[in-house]
Amino acid sequence: MFFDEGYSGRKFIMADKSYDDAEIVMYGMPMDYTVSFRPGSRFGPNRIREASIGLEEYSVYLDRHLEELRVHDAGDMMLPFGNAGRSLDMIEQLLDQLFADGKFPVGLGGEHLVTWPVIKAAHKKYNDLAIIHIDAHADLREEYEGEVLSHSTPVRKSCDLLGAENVYSFGIRSGMREEFQFAKESGMHMSKFEVAEPLKKILPTLAGRNVYVTIDIDVLDPAYAPGTGTAEAGGISSKELLEAIHAIAGSDVNVIGCDLVEVAPVYDHSEKTSIAASKFIREMMLGFTGK
């Protein structure tokens, strides 16, 4: 229903277990229908998989090896091209199934709107859900040019669903004045510009909480990640994003799933963006599971 059963393409490195045997299920969400600048992120999931072949299976940061995990890469979802509403419904249905089956979901985007149905499904499973959102953009708009389904809206939708006080954004350096006013007045947490240090201060307050982690690759400065649809100068380094991932991994939060979105290979001529993204995915899987 959700995937091409005949798919025989590249899998993420060592993601070779069957669905039934896996604890982690990786899936691609190849949707970029609502982007406001440069399209192409629907090709991101496969390029991240291709880049993973250059990774070591061992993380020197975490002293863990991918052979310690049971990962199933389901491939990309068969989403109806151009139909954002139907695509989001299908993603929500898939995540309902993954959570019901006790799987740890690892999503590859795609534009950032694909995170919204994941949050909806997670909220049905975990009543005390909090979100850690790492991004260059606030994503707090209610609509974009009249469209309520936009990659600039998923965090605002999540605030409305979960309560703004349960949403924690880091690295934000772009948005409308009204978005920053909403963040200030609503009770959500927003750290502008930086990620690792403010995150480390917040994590103890989330101890014991069920947390979903969503990372937009454009939180990185374009020098580190040019391959994205809405690049924003003044971002963090790959080293700082790794530090943030490892801080979450070493904390007492219960991560229930994660995603990485907005890799757009057509702008990634040196492949540095997809190479970095594949490493972040490896570190999240090794760090967020098996505690």
UniProtKB/TrEMBL annotation:
Keywords from the UniProt entry: Hydrolase, Manganese, Metal-binding, Polyamine biosynthesis, Putrescine biosynthesis, Spermidine biosynthesis
GO biological process: putrescine biosynthetic process from arginine, via agmatine; spermidine biosynthetic process
The protein's annotated pathway: Amine and polyamine biosynthesis; putrescine biosynthesis via agmatine pathway; putrescine from agmatine: step 1/1
PROSITE patterns referenced in this protein's UniProt entry, alphabetically: ARGINASE_1, ARGINASE_2
Annotated InterPro entries: Agmatinase-rel (IPR005925), Ureohydrolase (IPR006035), Ureohydrolase_dom_sf (IPR023696), Ureohydrolase_Mn_BS (IPR020855)
Cofactor binding remark: Binds 2 manganese ions per subunit.
Gene3D superfamilies noted in UniProt: Ureohydrolase domain
Domain of life: Bacteria
Keyword Chloroplast included in the entry's annotation: no
Enzyme class, first EC level, given as a word: hydrolase
Swiss-Prot/TrEMBL cofactor(s): Mn(2+)
Catalytic activities: agmatine + H2O = urea + putrescine
Keyword 4Fe-4S carried by entry: no
Entry's EC annotation: 3.5.3.11
Matching SUPFAM superfamilies: Arginase/deacetylase
One GO MF term: agmatinase activity
Binding site for Mn(2+): H112, D135, H137, D139, D216, D218
Similarity remark: Belongs to the arginase family. Agmatinase subfamily.
Functional note: Catalyzes the formation of putrescine from agmatine.
Protein name: Agmatinase
Species annotation: Paenalkalicoccus suaedae
Gene: speB
